[in-house]
Amino acid sequence: MEKRDVYLDNAATSHPKPECVLTAMRAALTGFNANPGRSGHRRSLEAARAVLAAREAVAAVLGARDPFCVAFAFNCTDALNLAIKGALRTGDHVISTLLEHNSVLRVLAEKLRREEIELTLLTPRADGFIDPEDVRSALRKNTRLIAVTHASNVTGAIQPVAAIAQVAKEAGVPLLVDGAQALGAMPVDVSALKCQLYAFPGHKGLLGPQGTGGLYIDAELDLQPLREGGTGSSSESMLQPTERPERYESGTLNLPGLAGLGAGARYVKENLAQIFMREREVTTALYDGLREIAGVEVYAPAEEAARAGIISFNAGDLTSSEAADYLDREGVAVRGGLHCAPGAHRFLGTLERGAVRASVGHETTFEDVEALLRAVKKMLRET
Description:
Aspartate Aminotransferase, domain 1, 2 domains, three-stranded antiparallel beta sheet, globular
């Protein structure tokens, strides 16, 4: 049987991109390529309109009423740095979890090393979910930020962010949600959720290109900018503007990237119900199929509604890197290792071995899942 070219690494970056994304990026580069918002000529104005359209499209997927509450960033890591560093001051206390990506953990750990903050890292329950009551119990008088992932990038466990948001609201503490594995793959409504900060990549569920991302910042919350510089507005002042989004977007924006992101976000908005159902169905087939293979250990919630499109596993006595390399030779792209989330692996007991992560996307098929399952069975027979 001919090997399929199977891509199951969508948690790292989504593939393939819709044709509309490529078309929008080409148009930005060849049709009206200019510095958006910096000049008054036709090309610059058209470029600025493309950026605004992208901002409105992303806001629509987020459920944000005001598109100017969306600040663009280089990626989700950049957005998380803005959220954490912009919200905290010396002496503040932060509540976060062992499930977080290093984009959160390393920022907090560095602040802790410098003795700038106090930090509480919550351990998940045995089922892999953070208990909102543990968040409540960890609150202190100087708690100034709660930071949680929407869905684990290792197990796919969708965290109870709505319940955690209610705890944060009652305490008057801003909630930062890392939406790297959620936005574009499942319904998100920051207005209903009432979180103050929601970070997202452009190149994963939103189906845009790499080098894009952003941060939703509640209108009532002011962050210290991560960087200062030219914004094309208030140029007579040496101080950073207070107006949004310019306050958080110094320097020339990534026009072709944001044009592609806008197209991807519009595609997602129009097709989210179908994307959500397709990804849930193929993820369930993946979970069930792996669980049936002797010698495979699966790290994912058992309940279908409680997991995103991510299933991690180990096979036989192979390390995750050995297994991922074998599967790659069989034409199946997955990711082995720690996935930049050492706390999650420490919780799972896989810190030394890592895990193989298979993650579905908007065009993943049942045939793709079957190809992975066949390759895993073959791998176990041959090793």
